[in-house]
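Whiteboard transcription, Tuesday session. T.W. wrote the structure tokens on the left side:
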């Protein structure tokens, strides 16, 4: 695999990529787990100190430790390194790229380059006695893969990427506030019904996106879930038991189908797969795949959402306050 291939292409902003959500982070974690499990950290370099949100333990404490696990908390990636955790949230424009060899020196000033941080791995012992078996070394005791690892980048001028080194993932404020994971076996239709009743008259689109209520669903998959459930994004969260059951089934179907499509993909392929699998999100002006009506959008100050009037709002376009103000 050439340098830069593999773990790349998650994030990137805009309708083509957007924020990595539960299905993409789930697949990314699986890919990272295959690449990083059992490897030893040589060092972790911070290029953009604005991205680092913690200072104790220091990033230098990762050096020499073995990567024990890669897991997910909502949209957070958690790399277990010895007794510590390297936690990342890619935000809107975050990106992770796999390197097969030693990294080149960073170019440009901090804040003026997309490179935010760099994970550098120690080499693996060669031969069959090595921890993972380096090909072609024949037990010579040489090392293979020294310098390989991850480049963590963030495009654009608005910097929201967050990196933490902690002893316990719960020390990360965003993880501590997370609601239940919709793919957890304990998340049932009754769980969702209770959440919806507690949310009352709040709009269902906002409830689905609120990470403190349900973890991992963002702008894109909330659009998709509501389209499958045939519900308006502005519908109050408090709904009948039958409607809550329909929403639960739509949530499970949408998320699990997205994960199934991403199964086994390298992360460099995830953004393209996400876009190709979306029914309404990012498809303003296209025909609805269910009824053929034109997909519409509502614009907010920092985001948009898409929906089908026939499938979701009884054929009535939703008011777009931003567009209405522009037309006045």
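and on the right, the sequence the group agreed on:
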């Amino acid at each position: 695999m050439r340098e830069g291939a593999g773990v790349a292409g998650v994030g990137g902003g805009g309708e083509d990529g957007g924020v990595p959500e539960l299905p993409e982070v789930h697949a990314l974690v699986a890919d990272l787990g295959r690449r990083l499990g059992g490897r030893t950290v040589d060092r972790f370099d911070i290029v953009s100190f604005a991205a680092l949100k913690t200072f104790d333990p220091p990033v230098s404490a990762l050096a020499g430790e073995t990567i024990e696990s890669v897991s997910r908390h909502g949209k957070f990636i958690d790399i277990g390194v010895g007794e510590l955790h390297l936690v990342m949230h890619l935000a809107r424009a975050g990106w992770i790229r796999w390197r097969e060899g030693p990294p080149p020196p960073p170019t440009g000033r901090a804040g003026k380059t997309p490179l935010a941080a760099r994970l550098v791995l120690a080499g693996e012992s060669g031969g069959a006695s090595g921890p993972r078996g380096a090909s072609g070394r024949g037990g010579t005791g040489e090392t293979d893969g020294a310098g390989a690892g991850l480049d963590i980048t963030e495009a654009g001028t608005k910097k929201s990427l967050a990196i933490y080194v902690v002893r316990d993932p719960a020390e990360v404020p965003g993880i501590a506030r997370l609601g239940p994971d919709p793919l957890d076996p304990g998340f049932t239709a009754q769980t969702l019904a209770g959440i919806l009743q507690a949310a009352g008259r709040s709009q269902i689109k906002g409830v689905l996106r609120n990470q403190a209520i349900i973890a991992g669903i963002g702008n894109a998959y909330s659009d998709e879930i509501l389209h499958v459930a045939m519900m308006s994004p502005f519908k109050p969260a408090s709904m009948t038991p039958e409607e809550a059951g329909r929403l639960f089934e739509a949530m499970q179907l949408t998320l699990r189908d997205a994960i199934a499509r991403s199964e086994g993909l390298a992360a460099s392929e995830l953004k393209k797969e996400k876009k190709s699998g979306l029914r309404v999100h990012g498809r303003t002006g296209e025909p609805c795949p269910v009824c053929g009506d034109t997909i519409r959008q509502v614009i907010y100050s920092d985001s948009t959402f898409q929906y089908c009037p026939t499938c979701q709002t009884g054929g009535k376009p939703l008011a777009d306050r931003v567009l209405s103000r522009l037309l006045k």
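Someone added at the bottom: The domain at 189-327 is CATH 1.10.8.50 (Helicase, Ruva Protein; domain 3).
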